[in-house]
């Protein structure tokens, strides 16, 4: 599904990713853990196509397509979805308006017909109910004045409606209380399927109790330094990232 | 990243010049001699078959104008205008004057069809609910070529006709109100207009009448080297209501053309006037060649108690806009409102805003201005809120937001606040923002293209004002804003 080979990325002459290699298979939930500044968020932005980053080397393939040659919106239409750590506010644009515009833009890019309004509303209502999103939240301008938990639920709602094939969750657990964490995790788990892969970026084991990963990768210094099964997350929780910092010092 | 470079190239290659109304109509024209003189004014007055008092009014204005200087305080720059290099009157040859649409030159009818303005009542009626009808006065260069639904409006007592006709048919009403809001001596361009105005609309709503349909005037400049000097006068008598909309377009030309209009609104006791403008004059090309100079004086007088005047404007066209639709809040408890969206792209220059002059007790005003600057344009909001000594309890709320797209444009806010009454309460809020790269990335990550994302964010930004427009025009205006900003990203 997703193959990253020898990815080297810098921003303003500062090297962030140093020859990163990563493969995520169809149906797999891969967790990426690592200390602050290890390049986790950069990785998610580069996959999604944010422009500030300079890719010096390497490639990112999604089902064999070279993502680096595509614009962010083309990558979205190809199936890449990024649930932001800090979702952006769009003043004056109703959440429903935004959802419809996004869904139709992707359909258009794939050569499909636009959704009819009744079909759109049906889909939104079904997805919103599962995420315990009240109707009045959908009437408000996108993310404007939303609490941290509301913003994250809105991200997962968009993920559910856009039906991406490759989902990146960037620190989705940050700023969530226990209840919100449960709702968001259930929303994500409901979307797990043999055709869809997830890259779950997090500092903490906590999220992985709810969204149980198939593989865990430790990121440090802009590359993957260790990979393993879900037990690796527990080990990190117990020992912290100190081992990796020391290996860097040595 | 090669993909990024490609986008930049694509965006650069998009022609900023997306103007869709730039065609020209081939029709035989009759013009005054070039330039401005007493003789030209006599020529115009004679063409309109005006009474002597009107001619005298014009000549007095002309004498006054000769002593005046062009204002230079606005934040706009342009080459000196040669006022003797302009035709002040140009009209399609129509002898005798057409009595019905069947006698109007088919080329002119086609022009309005192309612009999407139907002039045949049967066509307007087809498929439109009676309450959604719009009566149109179509002004082509210096003359009104057609006015629809005149008869039906007359039944309701509403007078809706070209002002040149009103001068002949309702001289007393015209004499009483013309120049009573914008005096002949008001400013350089208004005085010029008073001397040479050619056509525009006249509206009178009798006491207690709610005008049964929207009224509108569609201004079209067609002829080369011609100025358009529109004069509109709207009177809402006691307890009446009217909603009026104007639209404007012009062909693409390399030379600049002058549009110096005067609009006067008078609302008597308990009357309400809603005046909406969708201004889409030719803005000039990407290098700033050509385009309309839109130097306009618009003012409403809330003359009666509890009267209301609302200005709503969507300004996307013109090379230069100099325009401050204002309200004089004379009647006690009267209310003035100004809602504006001013979009500038390419090399356009906008200096626009409003004046709210509080004279009466408990008068209120509200100003919502949204300026959007893209390309290399300059966009200035200039507004005055003042309270007179007797304006006890006056209140104003002002909100001015500017949005910048790209890094070569400018947005400026110049508020003037004067209060001579200690009980007046004025609030002013202003923000300037840029569409952030993060917002763009967020929208694009969800699948919206750069253009779609910009349009969506801009529409969110102007929503408060669009809501003020009549429904069908709001949709048009929204499209117009998107078109005006095409090619602005990069």
Automatic annotation (TrEMBL), chain A:
<protein>
    <submittedName>
        <fullName>Fe-S cluster assembly ATP-binding protein</fullName>
    </submittedName>
</protein>
<dbReference type="Pfam" id="PF00005">
    <property type="entry name" value="ABC_tran"/>
</dbReference>
<keyword id="KW-0547">Nucleotide-binding</keyword>
<dbReference type="InterPro" id="IPR003439">
    <property type="entry name" value="ABC_transporter-like_ATP-bd"/>
</dbReference>
<dbReference type="InterPro" id="IPR027417">
    <property type="entry name" value="P-loop_NTPase"/>
</dbReference>
<dbReference type="GO" id="GO:0016887">
    <property type="term" value="F:ATP hydrolysis activity"/>
</dbReference>
<comment type="similarity">
    <text>Belongs to the ABC transporter superfamily. Ycf16 family.</text>
</comment>
<keyword id="KW-0067">ATP-binding</keyword>
<dbReference type="InterPro" id="IPR003593">
    <property type="entry name" value="AAA+_ATPase"/>
</dbReference>
<dbReference type="GO" id="GO:0005524">
    <property type="term" value="F:ATP binding"/>
</dbReference>
<dbReference type="InterPro" id="IPR017871">
    <property type="entry name" value="ABC_transporter-like_CS"/>
</dbReference>
<dbReference type="InterPro" id="IPR010230">
    <property type="entry name" value="FeS-cluster_ATPase_SufC"/>
</dbReference>
<feature type="domain" description="ABC transporter">
    <location>
        <begin position="2"/>
        <end position="246"/>
    </location>
</feature>
Automatic annotation (TrEMBL), chain B:
<dbReference type="InterPro" id="IPR000825">
    <property type="entry name" value="SUF_FeS_clus_asmbl_SufBD_core"/>
</dbReference>
<dbReference type="Pfam" id="PF19295">
    <property type="entry name" value="SufBD_N"/>
</dbReference>
<dbReference type="GO" id="GO:0016226">
    <property type="term" value="P:iron-sulfur cluster assembly"/>
</dbReference>
<dbReference type="InterPro" id="IPR055346">
    <property type="entry name" value="Fe-S_cluster_assembly_SufBD"/>
</dbReference>
<comment type="similarity">
    <text>Belongs to the iron-sulfur cluster assembly SufBD family.</text>
</comment>
<dbReference type="InterPro" id="IPR010231">
    <property type="entry name" value="SUF_FeS_clus_asmbl_SufB"/>
</dbReference>
<dbReference type="InterPro" id="IPR037284">
    <property type="entry name" value="SUF_FeS_clus_asmbl_SufBD_sf"/>
</dbReference>
<feature type="domain" description="SUF system FeS cluster assembly SufBD core">
    <location>
        <begin position="219"/>
        <end position="461"/>
    </location>
</feature>
<protein>
    <submittedName>
        <fullName>Fe-S cluster assembly protein SufB</fullName>
    </submittedName>
</protein>
<feature type="domain" description="SUF system FeS cluster assembly SufBD N-terminal">
    <location>
        <begin position="148"/>
        <end position="210"/>
    </location>
</feature>
<dbReference type="InterPro" id="IPR045595">
    <property type="entry name" value="SufBD_N"/>
</dbReference>
<dbReference type="Pfam" id="PF01458">
    <property type="entry name" value="SUFBD_core"/>
</dbReference>
């Amino acid at each position: 599904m997703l193959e990253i080979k020898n990815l080297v990325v810098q921003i303003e002459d500062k090297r962030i990713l140093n020859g990163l290699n990563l493969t995520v298979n169809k149906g797999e939930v891969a967790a990426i853990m690592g200390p602050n500044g290890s390049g986790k968020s950069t990785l998610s932005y580069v996959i999604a196509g944010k422009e500030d980053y300079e890719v010096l080397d390497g490639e990112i393939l999604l089902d064999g397509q070279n993502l680096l040659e595509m614009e962010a919106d083309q990558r979205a239409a190809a199936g890449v979805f990024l649930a932001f750590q800090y979702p952006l506010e769009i003043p004056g644009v109703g959440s429903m308006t935004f959802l419809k515009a996004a869904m139709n833009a992707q359909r258009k890019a794939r050569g499909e017909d636009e959704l009819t309004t009744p079909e759109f509303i049906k889909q939104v209502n079904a997805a919103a109910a599962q995420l315990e999103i009240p109707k009045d939240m959908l009437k408000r301008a996108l993310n404007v004045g939303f609490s941290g938990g509301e913003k994250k639920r809105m991200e997962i709602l968009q993920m559910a409606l856009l039906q991406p094939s490759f989902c990146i969750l960037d620190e989705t657990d940050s700023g969530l209380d226990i209840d919100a964490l449960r709702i968001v995790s259930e929303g994500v788990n409901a979307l797990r399927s043999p055709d869809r892969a997830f890259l779950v970026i997090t500092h903490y084991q906590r999220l992985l109790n709810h969204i149980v990963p198939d593989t865990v990768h430790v990121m440090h210094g802009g590359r993957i330094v260790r990979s393993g099964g879900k037990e690796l997350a527990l080990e990190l929780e117990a020992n912290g990232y100190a081992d990796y910092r020391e290996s860097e010092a040595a | 990243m090669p993909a990024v470079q490609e986008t930049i190239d694509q965006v650069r290659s998009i022609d900023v010049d997306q103007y869709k109304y730039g065609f020209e109509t081939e029709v035989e024209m009759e013009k005054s001699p070039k330039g401005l003189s007493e003789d030209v004014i006599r020529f115009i007055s004679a063409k309109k078959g005006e009474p002597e008092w009107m001619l005298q009014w014009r000549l007095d204005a002309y004498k006054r104008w000769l002593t005046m200087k062009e204002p230079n305080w606005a934040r706009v720059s342009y080459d000196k205008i040669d006022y003797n290099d302009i035709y002040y009157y140009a009209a399609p040859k129509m002898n005798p004057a057409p009595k019905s649409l069947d006698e109007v030159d088919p080329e002119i009818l086609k022009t309005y069809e192309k612009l999407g303005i139907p002039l045949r009542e049967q066509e307007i009626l087809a498929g439109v609910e009676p309450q959604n009808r719009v009566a149109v006065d179509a002004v082509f260069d210096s003359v009104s070529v057609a006015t629809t639904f005149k008869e039906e409006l007359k039944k309701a007592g509403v007078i809706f006709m070209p002002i040149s006709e009103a001068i002949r048919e309702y001289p007393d009403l015209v004499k009483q109100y013309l120049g009573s809001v914008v005096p002949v001596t008001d400013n350089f361009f208004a005085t010029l207009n008073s001397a040479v105005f050619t056509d525009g609309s006249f509206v009178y709503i009798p006491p207690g009448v709610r005008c049964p349909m929207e009224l509108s005037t569609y201004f079209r400049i067609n002829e080369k080297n011609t100025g358009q000097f529109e004069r509109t006068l709207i009177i809402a008598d006691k307890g009446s209501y009217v909603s009026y909309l104007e639209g404007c377009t012009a062909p693409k030309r390399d030379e600049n053309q002058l549009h110096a209009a005067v609009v006067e609104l008078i609302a008597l006791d308990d009357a309400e006037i809603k005046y909406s403008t969708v201004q889409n004059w030719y803005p000039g090309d990407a290098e700033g060649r050509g385009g309309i100079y839109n130097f306009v004086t618009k003012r409403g007088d809330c003359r009666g108690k509890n009267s209301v005047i609302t200005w709503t404007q969507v300004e996307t066209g013109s090379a230069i806009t100099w325009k401050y639709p204002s309200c004089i809040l004379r009647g006690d408890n009267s209310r003035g409102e100004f809602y504006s969206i001013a979009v500038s792209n390419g090399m356009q220059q906008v200096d626009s805003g409003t004046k709210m002059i509080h004279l009466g007790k408990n008068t209120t005003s509200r100003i919502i201005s949204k300026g959007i600057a893209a390309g290399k344009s300059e966009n200035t909001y200039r507004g005055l809120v003042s309270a007179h000594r007797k304006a006890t309890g006056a209140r104003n709320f002002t909100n001015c937001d500017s949005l910048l797209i790209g890094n070569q444009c400018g947005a400026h806010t110049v508020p003037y606040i004067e209060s001579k009454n200690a009980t007046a309460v004025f609030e002013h809020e202003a923000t300037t923002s840029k569409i952030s790269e993060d917002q763009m990335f967020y929208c694009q990550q969800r699948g919206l293209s750069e253009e779609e994302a910009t349009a969506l964010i801009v529409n969110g930004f102007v929503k408060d004002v669009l809501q003020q427009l009549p429904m069908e025009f709001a949709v048009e205006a929204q499209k117009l804003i998107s078109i005006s900003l095409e090619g602005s990203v990069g």
